[in-house]
């Protein structure tokens, strides 16, 4: 059974409750659909040493990779903002490592409306070895 975007959105919103964001009060949720058909979630995890904070996207991606995933089919990014939020630069570079031109980055606003981008659109000329 193929995982629907709606399911990924629900999972990315559900993980917002676990956001550890006591310093910014900015909750972010991500869900990743690996090419193995499995879903992985992540939320942002902050630290009193602020620079150690890790974004929701990287938590979800690293969870997928830890389970053996090398290619992400879809990544959904959600927050409690009225507007869509977009991945930070570091997350775009990490995404580019585990994506291809068919990978869909789905940005969701508070109402549940979404837009779909490719990694190439988010990070043209990504650094690759
Ligand atoms: N954050 C993410 O989780 N993903 C992003 O792409 C941008 C920022 C988090 C990090 C921090 O906990 C909070 O949002 C405010 O920057």
Principal-axes geometry comes out as globular
Described by strand count, sense and barrel closure, the largest sheet is:
5 strands, mixed
Order of helices and strands: HEEHEHEEH
Bound molecules: tetrahydrodeoxyuridine
- Count of distinct strands: 5
Uncertain segments: none
Tally the helices: what do you get? 4
Task: Report strand %.
Answer: 15-25%
Order of adjacent strands in the largest pleated sheet = 2-1-3-4-5
- CATH fold field value: Cytidine Deaminase, domain 2
CATH architecture assignment name = 3-Layer(aba) Sandwich
- Report Rg: 14 Å
Structure description:
The chain has helices at 5-14, 56-66, 89-97, 119-122, and strands at 28-34, 39-43, 72-79, 104-108, 114-117. With 129 residues, it is an alpha+beta fold. Strand 3 (72-79), helix 3 (89-97) and strand 4 (104-108) form a beta-alpha-beta unit. The chain has a single domain (5-122), classed as Cytidine Deaminase, domain 2. The longest helix is centred in the middle third of the chain and has 11 residues, at 56-66. Tetrahydrodeoxyuridine binds at residues 21, 24, 26, 28, 44, 46, 53, 55-57, 87-88, 91.
Layout of strands and helices, then pairs:
Layout (H helix, E strand, L loop, with lengths): L4 H10 L13 E7 L4 E5 L12 H11 L5 E8 L9 H9 L6 E5 L5 E4 L1 H4 L7
Parallel strand pairs: 3-4
Antiparallel strand pairs: 1-2, 1-3, 4-5
The structure holds tetrahydrodeoxyuridine.
